[in-house]
Amino acid sequence: MNRGHGIYPCMSEIHTSSNIPQQSATKHSPGKVIVITGASSGIGAQLAVTLARHWNARIGLMARRAEQLEEVANQVRNAGGEAEVLPCDVVDDESVRRSIGQVERQFGPIDLAIANAGIADPLPVHRMGDSSLVQRVFRINLEGAANLFAAVLPQMLERGEGHIAAVSSIAGFRGLPGSAPYCASKAGLSCYLESLRLDLKGRGIAVTTIHPGFVATPMTDRNRFPMPFMMSSERAATILERGLRRRKREINFPWQMVGAMRLLRAMPDWMFDLALGGRRLPK
Ligand SMILES: NC(=O)c1ccc[n+]([C@@H]2O[C@H](COP(=O)([O-])OP(=O)(O)OC[C@H]3O[C@@H](n4cnc5c(N)ncnc54)[C@H](OP(=O)(O)O)[C@@H]3O)[C@@H](O)[C@H]2O)c1
Predict the structure, then answer these.
(1) What is the residue extent of each domain of the chain?
(2) What are the backbone dihedrals phi and psi of residue 55, each rounded to the nearest 5 degrees, phi first?
């Protein structure tokens, strides 16, 4: 199926979970070995607990804050799963590899690796000279995910089975005001996963790209602008669990925000600029 437009295949139409055939796969059985980055709070923490409850999963919990990870590990165990706490920074390639090695020794081969760690630091006009801010967002959101996949994919390829997933965002569908690094990192992440999906076709490894709208987490707690159709992290985790179980190519939600972002993407540039150009972020 040719989904590309000219020389920019990454800008091609992103398919929804509803209009694509699902990847061939077996249903996840209980006891699958999973690693999740950014598992110390928000979506990652809730997803870990949900996967423990539904899959009895054995989960490697990765993030920088060990104390928060311990709390999540207790919740995972109470939900019927097993947990390994792995304090690590996703930007540090070596520390990611060490953590993956630890999970493999503890639980066995990894069935599902979820790159969820991310930050959403805004880039207002008065900070546009701060390249370190931009680098930080790119490194955590994009390189961090690539580091996780580099650490798990060789073993999955050798076994001829596995599943990788990344939490991107609908903010990657089009450049939005005040969020250049975040939007670019998420567009890049979605494109990265799309390429991997093509490369891994026929090798037994499923690839899932996740595009959430607003979810109530510490990340969105900081926002001072309207967040339509905001969803609880529990609801988001339930949607993710179902989509991951079916090894979907994409999990996009809520449909209202996905539809709105698709409309924005279809808009001609002059109309898009008229609607959103020159907007300032609320302090
Ligand atoms: N909430 C939303 O509305 C929304 C919408 C679309 C997409 N997303 C995406 O969903 C993902 C999770 O976000 P969230 O909303 O759950 O926010 P959150 O509660 O702030 O969680 C972010 C997680 O990323 C981890 N993290 C950040 N930098 C890291 C690093 N260098 N190394 C390892 N872990 C790191 C944090 O843990 P430590 O600080 O302990 O390291 C934390 O566990 C992000 O990728 C975000 O972009 C969120």
Answers:
(1) 28-276
(2) -115, 0
Q: Which residue, 202, 150, 151, 193, is CA-closest to 172?
A: 193
- Ligand 1 pocket test: which of 35, 36, 37, 43 has the largest number of ligand atoms within 8 Å of its C-beta? 43
CB 38 within 8 A of CB 116: yes
Q: Is 176 exposed, middle or buried (0-12, 13-18, 19+ CB in 10 A)?
A: middle
By alpha-carbon position, which residue is closest to atom 1 of ligand 1?
A: 215
Residue among 37, 64, 139 to mutate when testing ligand 1 (max atoms within 8 A of CB): 64
CA distance 219 to 222: 6
Q: What's the CA-to-centroid distance between 29 and ligand 1, angstroms? A: 27
Is the CB of residue 137 less than 8 Å from the CB of residue 143?
A: no
| CATH T-level fold of 28-276 | Rossmann fold (3.40.50)
Per run of 10 residues, the mean pLDDT along the chain (length 283 residues) is 29 32 42 97 98 96 98 98 98 98 97 98 91 96 98 98 98 95 98 98 98 96 90 98 98 96 94 86 55
